[in-house]
Specification:
The complex is a heterodimer of chains A (about 300) and B (about 625).
Chain A lengths: L3 E3 L23 H7 L1 H18 L1 H4 L30 H36 L4 H15 L2 H10 L6 H12 L1 H14 L3 H8 L4 H9 L4 H24 L10 H10 L8 H29 L7
Chain B lengths: L3 E10 L7 E11 L4 E5 L6 H8 L7 E10 L2 E2 L5 H7 L4 E4 L13 H12 L5 H13 L16 H12 L6 E5 L7 H18 L2 E6 L2 H7 L2 E6 L2 E7 H6 L4 H8 L9 E4 L26 H5 L5 E3 L2 E3 L2 H8 L18 E4 L2 H7 L5 E14 L2 E15 L4 E5 L6 H8 L7 E6 L7 E2 L5 H10 E4 L13 H13 L3 H14 L6 H4 L8 H14 L4 E5 L7 H18 L2 E6 L2 H7 L2 E6 L2 E7 H6 L4 H9 L11
Helix pairs in contact in B: 4-5, 5-6, 6-22, 15-16, 15-18, 16-18, 18-19
The chains are: A mainly alpha (about 300), B alpha/beta (about 625).
């Protein structure tokens, strides 16, 4: 007899390999997980509402948001649901059109900051301990300690053209550092897994290992980072616009607040003009924060049972 | 009345987003005063869930859904936490599965004992220190470690401290949940001997949970076998060895053998355990059982007395207590009538006179570490020489810290030796100096040398399908197009017996059992058509019931393809099963080298002897036909 496997011969019906059952315990899909969380559901509905308003702005708003040829300081009425401003703009229409700016800045600012954070964080983490990591970590650390608001103000104030792309750019390059840090520490825990070594032995390039093998394992962190960055971008845009550094040709909730403040709306008792943009801004940021509760469930299964 | 009486205990997991499952299903057993009871089963059988439930530590989403636990006559199933506290650690103590981490890292050892002792006794001050000293002597640790922090202790010492801590208040019942998993064989042996000796001296009852049947049989008076959440057999240890009742017990026992035998046979249980979220019809083991009859698929057997034990098996019951309906039964066996892996002595000699393709010549590796101003040198590997031949399996045996992993890292060119040479002879072209490879040379070398990892659960990317895992090396190393690679990936899967491959290509690793995953890892290693496969403990994290399956596959691949395998392990039995040549490493030096059977039968070195003595040997005084 030689070495090898012996199959018993007396019973031919032996299950050598039990049949593979259909996968029965598929992990829940990510959208089911996020939707399963009550806070996240509230956030998604709320955000969906804002997106709908932004997309359908021309349908919903009674007038173009840029029009200022109405009678000034009209009280709320059928023609002007929230009244008019001191310059004769319709507050409701401005509010509806303003949602577009906030959402666009949130989307692109978030994407831009996440992209920088991903590249810097993943590369420096994967190359931990090398010169590349030293350099990228140094840049990250500098970006972390630079006072962000003054930097943004300086960047915007000295630019020739003001507009949305500038805002997105400034917000992006001032807010990536924290997220890059988080991704760097995450990849350090992942890069010593056996499957990464296995990928090296499969002849994969470093680029593929980082972005194709490792990154999918940190999707939830990337998603949470994006939602956080978008929230920050929306707040930053409102802040810059409130300081008068926004895009003068477009309407945003920040510019509405800026004008309300400049015209002394509070002193004149024009509460609606101040309150409404502030409130919608707060609601939008709340909705994103709620969504992040749901995204947290993706990365931390222990939270799912709460 | 028994000390611990468990009746119809069920534990259900009801997660919000998954289907609920019954992890422990109507389990009943007793543990008598001073009895040493072993509980075995493969991973996922519910043994740890059962242990946790006995301690009333079940956490959401799990809950005790039925039955009762009585301790010393008192029902503790629904006892409020405050009343439980009086019993915990005084009557019922435990050594946890992850006890390497269960000591508080910021509190000195003595403080942790003091907490446990002062909470339940009147001892205070110096009296407590005296008691701790006594406990330390009991588990054979130098008392000067009393005031140490946990990080100053080695893994084995931590485990002894945990054991001492469990015994601090002279409990009547101790639950040991895989207390030595992750420790070295030699350390493991001494801890288990310690446990058994203390148990005999102090007469506490033990429930010892383990997946390692060798150690359980060695230690226990009585053994419970669990499968798919149910108890399938309860039998005195000697009775189980002599005449196991349930086919699953036979399968577990069959996965064990004495490495000193001339011809070794180990069986494996094919397939995987049932999905507990599905409703079971009939016996849960039927799908994997070589002895099943029609009745097994229809009616679930109950645990009932058969001969001198208890078992839940129709076939065993009908065979032994009469067959009134005259059903057609398989012949009565002691062994598992499933697939078997047999290792004989013949081939080795034939292989050993081939010319080596990889030569390790006087290789050393020194690590230098700086602690503040001091520098320390650690010699991980010192002056090691050997050769690897095509079609040969060389086992590198040693406990952790013996330098076997460092040696493997140098051979795979992950690390460079500080002295010595490693020479690799490719099939065509000039000899390669492995120790000085970089860039393209390194990439070409990686194609020739592939790895199989210890843990198949972490060596396959959980986010990628099997097709992705297998086609990448094909496309990178063999320049195949996507379609060619897919076809070849299918062939590779067939080669490692995952058939039909079309059903596996699109699957994700979580859909496979541990044994199947390890086969995929082996298939990926083969994809590059290497000359050498370095297998680092490829079976130690797998259930015993499927180890033979993977060893058998490796063995047949070596046979068919002529690839050389460097098999790294601390387990002499598996080394004996698969290796032609064995190298025993201790403290970075080769202390013994030779044909596998010769090294294992006539060890020349003391260290090899101590390794062999540490192998649990339940068959030492029982003759299994």
């Amino acid at each position: 007899m030689s070495t090898g496997v012996v199959q018993p011969t007396d019973r031919g019906d032996l299950p050598v390999e039990a049949p593979l059952e259909e996968a029965s315990s598929t992990p829940p899909r990510w959208y089911a997980l996020v939707w399963g969380n009550r806070k996240a559901r509230v956030g998604i509905v709320l955000l969906g509402f804002f997106v709908l308003v932004a997309v359908l702005a021309p349908v919903i708003a009674p007038y173009d948001g840029a029009r200022t040829d109405f009678e000034a300081l009209l009280p709320p009425s059928g023609a002007h649901p929230l009244g008019t401003t001191t310059q004769g703009g319709d507050i409701f229409s401005q509010l509806v059109y303003g949602s577009r700016t906030s959402l666009l800045v949130g989307l692109f600012g978030g994407l831009f900051a996440t992209a920088i954070a991903l590249v810097v964080g993943l590369v420096s983490g994967y190359k931990e301990g090398t010169v590349v990591d030293d350099l990228l970590s140094f840049v990250t650390n500098v970006a972390l300690v630079v006072p962000v608001l003054p930097l943004m103000i300086v960047l915007v104030a000295y630019s020739d053209v003001r507009g949305l792309p500038l805002l997105v750019f400034v917000i992006g390059i001032t807010s990536w550092a924290g997220h890059a840090r988080a991704k760097r520490s995450q990849i350090i825990t992942l890069r010593n897994r056996d499957f990464v070594t296995a990928a090296k032995f499969s002849g994969e390039s470093t680029f593929r290992i980082v972005f194709r093998e490792i990154m999918p394992s940190m999707t939830s962190l990337v998603a949470a980072g994006f939602v956080g960055a978008a929230t920050g971008a929306i707040g930053a845009e409102a802040g810059l616009s409130f300081l008068g550094l926004g895009d003068p040709s477009s309407i945003s909730w920040g510019t509405m607040l800026y004008q309300a403040n400049a015209q002394g709306a509070v002193a004149q008792g024009l509460w609606i003009w101040v309150l409404v943009p502030g409130l919608t801004l707060a609601l939008l940021i709340t909705s994103l924060t709620f969504i992040n509760f749901g995204v947290d469930l993706l990365s931390n299964p222990h939270l799912r049972e709460e | 009345m028994a000390l611990l009486e468990v009746r119809d205990l069920s534990v259900r997991y009801e997660p919000r987003l998954h289907r609920p499952l019954t992890a422990v299903d109507r389990v009943s057993f007793d543990v008598g005063e001073g009895e040493f009871v072993g509980l075995i089963g493969e991973s996922g059988s519910g043994k740890s869930t059962l242990g946790t439930a006995l301690l009333r530590l079940t956490e959401r989403p799990g809950r005790i859904s039925g039955g009762s636990i009585r301790f010393d006559g008192k029902d503790i199933t629904d006892l409020p936490e405050d009343e439980l506290r009086a019993h915990r650690w005084r009557d019922i103590a435990t050594v946890f599965q992850s006890s390497m981490n269960s000591l508080n890292p910021v509190v000195r050892i003595e403080g942790q004992f003091r907490d446990a002792i002062e909470a339940h006794t009147d001892l205070r001050g110096a009296a407590v220190t005296g008691r701790v000293r006594e406990l330390f002597e009991m588990v054979m640790i130098d008392p000067r470690f009393i005031s140490a922090h946990p990080h100053e202790l080695s893994g084995g010492m931590k485990q002894r401290v945990n054991l001492a801590l469990a015994l601090a208040n002279r409990p009547r019942f101790v639950l040991l949940d895989e207390p030595t998993t992750g420790l070295d064989v030699v350390v493991q042996r001494s801890i288990l001997d310690n446990i058994r000796r203390l148990q005999q001296e102090q007469q506490f009852a033990v429930l010892f949970i383990s997946h390692d049947i060798g150690t359980v049989v060695d230690l226990s008076d009585r053994i419970l076998v669990m499968y798919a959440g149910r108890l399938v057999e309860s039998h005195a240890a000697q009775g189980l060895l002599r005449d196991p009742l349930h086919p699953y017990s036979k399968g577990l026992l069959g996965s064990y053998a004495d490495p000193r035998e001339e011809t070794i046979r180990i069986t494996y249980v094919p397939g995987r355990p049932p999905d507990l979220t599905q409703v079971q019809h009939g016996c849960a083991f039927a799908a994997r059982c070589p002895e099943r009859i029609a009745l097994c698929g229809e009616q679930a057997p109950e645990l009932e007395p058969i001969d001198d034990g208890l078992a839940a098996c129709h076939v065993a019951r009908l065979q032994r207590t009469g067959n009134p309906d005259g059903l057609d039964l398989p012949p009565r066996t002691v062994g598992f009538a499933g697939p078997e892996f047999v290792k004989t002595q013949e081939e080795t000699a034939r292989v050993l006179d081939r010319e080596p393709f990889l030569r390790v010549e006087a290789v050393s590796r020194v690590f230098e570490r700086r602690h503040g101003l001091r520098r320390s040198r650690v010699e991980a590997v010192t002056d090691v020489s050997f050769g690897l031949r095509p079609g040969e399996v060389t086992a590198l045996v040693g406990q952790s810290g013996s330098g076997k992993t460092t040696l493997a890292r140098m051979i795979t060119a992950v690390e460079r030796p500080t002295a010595g040479r490693i020479r690799f002879q490719p099939e065509d072209g000039p000899e390669v100096a492995v120790e000085s490879l970089r860039g393209k040379g390194l990439r070409d070398y990686r194609r020739q040398v592939q790895m199989v990892f210890q843990d198949p659960y972490s060596s396959l990317n959980p986010t990628k399908t099997l097709e992705y895992a297998l086609t990448r090396p094909l496309r990178n190393f063999r320049g195949m197009t996507a379609a060619q690679a897919r076809e070849e990936a299918g062939r590779l899967l067939e080669r490692v017996a995952l058939t039909p491959s079309s059903r596996f290509l699109g699957r994700y690793p979580y859909e496979l059992s541990g044994g199947q995953r390890q086969r995929v890892v082996i298939a990926r290693a083969l994809a590059a058509q290497p000359r050498l496969i370095v297998a680092d403990e490829p079976v130690s994290s797998l259930d015993v019931s499927i180890r033979a399956e993977v060893l058998e596959l490796l063995q047949s691949l070596v046979h068919d393809s002529g690839v050389g395998v460097l098999y790294i392990t601390h387990d002499l039995l598996s080394a004996r099963m698969i290796a032609d040549e064995v190298l025993v490493l201790n403290g970075g030096r080769v202390v013994e080298q030779g044909p596998a059977l010769q090294v294992i039968r006539d060890p020349a070195d003391d260290y090899t002897r101590s390794l062999l003595a540490a192998v649990p040997n339940p068959f030492a005084d029982t003759l299994v036909p």
